[in-house]
From TrEMBL:
It comes from the Bacteria. It comes from Amphiplicatus metriothermophilus. This is Formyl-CoA transferase. It holds the Pfam family CoA_transf_3. The keyword Transferase applies. Keywords: Transferase. PANTHER family: SUCCINATE--HYDROXYMETHYLGLUTARATE COA-TRANSFERASE. GO terms for molecular function: CoA-transferase activity.
Length: 427
């Protein structure tokens, strides 16, 4: 290499294209299920415009503490809001005002996907329902996320994650079994019914978007938290449909595998997850009980599940003889899956979390002004050709109202000022 070439400035590496670059999403949803779906689109490069009520915005902006605080110590947005709204543009429009609804219709005419989670029929009076918008945009993928769907005897009911976990069967299989200390149905520690509905909504909208690209025809997606909760019962739903017996609560045990649960150690607790007969034989040798693998009650997973109580009675005393750390090292060396029960602070301190960059700051140009060093949990999928992006922290309410109305709809400064004066928009 010549001296001149080695000292020449290096060309900046081109940024890889985002998978959904050019896709426009209009987000009329609030709280978690809908925003979770639209955040997936935003992470993958779609332009997501979030429509929010002037003066109040998404309900989750106030769902704290904890909150971010500005330079004067005043609370701004709750951490809850930050979890589901990165990479979006916030436009504050009052859709109850005729002029506001008209603005949203114009934005919908340009959109590829619309996501909303109003009550069934709630947007019809504003002319923002699927049938109305289909007349102005035939290729629009219109995704409605509700508690119970557009049909059925419960369609008009509001649906919240907690009640959906209860009604959809999840709580009936979560918690300590009857007769054990603290026995009662339990919810999961995060709003999984909302999150799974959001993920199904995103996957469904991507499938419908592909159909629209091929045919020029959009469609209406009816996503119910209740349906998604039933779908995510997975093997437990299949257990019932095959056997006719409703599964019950097993605490930290697995309904179809044993031993696969929490065990007490000399200084805490660990999870041991024996997934097959070979692993069980290795486990039995490790705890000094090799004869268990040949015991007719325990020699296959089926027999271990059928004789779970007797199996745990044989195993538990041995596990209590060593510390959690000692067991991790021994089990890992023997090829038997096991893991600690981490508190969330320990999760983010874990070297695997750090290696996978699962708590990352926003790029400097995309950070929140009041919290430039704030870390976020990023999109978890690693793409070799079209990586997920982080172009913007969760926006302040109405931060992009003026820009979107000018660039997307061509409104003049005078028109925007007039709408703001009437309270139709907030800038």
């Amino acid at each position: 290499m010549s001296e001149s070439s080695s000292s020449a400035p290096q060309a900046e590496t081109a940024r890889p294209p985002a998978a959904l670059a050019g896709v426009r999403v209009l987000d009329l949803s609030r709280v978690l299920a809908g925003p979770w779906a639209s955040q997936i689109f935003a992470d993958l490069g779609a332009e997501v415009v979030k429509i929010e009520r002037p003066g109040r915005g998404d309900d989750t902006r106030g769902w704290g503490p904890p909150f971010l605080h500005d330079a004067d110590g005043e609370a701004t947005d709750a951490a809850y809001f930050l979890s589901a709204n990165r990479n979006k543009r916030s436009v504050a429009i009052d859709i109850a005002a005729p002029e506001g609804a008209a603005l949203v219709r114009r934005l919908a005419a340009q959109a590829d996907v619309l996501i909303e989670n109003f009550k069934v029929g709630g947007l019809r009076k504003y002319g923002l329902d699927y049938e109305s918008l289909r007349n102005v945009n035939r290729r629009l993928v219109y995704c409605s996320v509700t508690g119970f769907g557009q049909t059925g005897p419960y369609a008009a009911r509001a649906g919240y994650d907690y009640m959906i976990q209860a009604m959809g069967g999840l709580m009936s299989i979560t918690g300590q079994p009857d007769g054990a200390p603290g026995a009662e149905p339990m919810k999961v520690g995060v709003a999984v019914a909302d999150l799974f509905a959001g993920m199904y909504a995103a996957a469904g909208a991507l499938a419908a978007l592909r159909h629209a690209e091929r045919t020029g025809e959009g469609q209406h997606l009816d996503v119910a938290l209740y349906d998604c909760q039933i779908a995510m019962l997975a093997n437990q739903a299949a257990n019932y449909l095959v056997s006719g017996v409703a599964p019950g609560r097993l605490g930290n045990a697995h309904p179809n595998i044993a031993p696969y649960q929490v065990f007490e150690t000399a200084d805490g607790h660990i999870v041991i997850a024996v997934g097959n007969d070979g692993q069980f034989a290795a486990f039995a040798r490790l705890i000094g009980r090799p004869e268990l693998a040949a015991d007719a009650r325990f020699e296959t997973n089926r027999r271990r599940v059928e004789n779970r109580a007797a199996l745990i009675a044989e195993i538990a005393p041995a596990i209590r003889e060593r510390t959690s750390k000692a067991w991790f090292e021994l089990l890992e060396a023997a090829g038997v899956p096991a893991g600690p029960i981490n508190a969330i602070d320990a999760v983010f301190a874990d070297p695997q979390t750090r290696a996978r960059a699962m708590a990352a700051p926003a790029p400097q140009e995309a950070a929140r002004a009041e919290a430039p060093d704030l870390r976020y949990v990023p999109h978890p999928v690693k793409y070799s050709a079209t990586p997920a992006r982080f172009d913007g922290a969760p926006p302040a309410l109405g931060a992009h109202t003026r820009d979107v109305l000018e660039s997307a709809l061509g409104l003049s400064a005078a028109e925007i000022a007039a709408l703001a004066k009437k309270g139709v928009i907030a800038i």
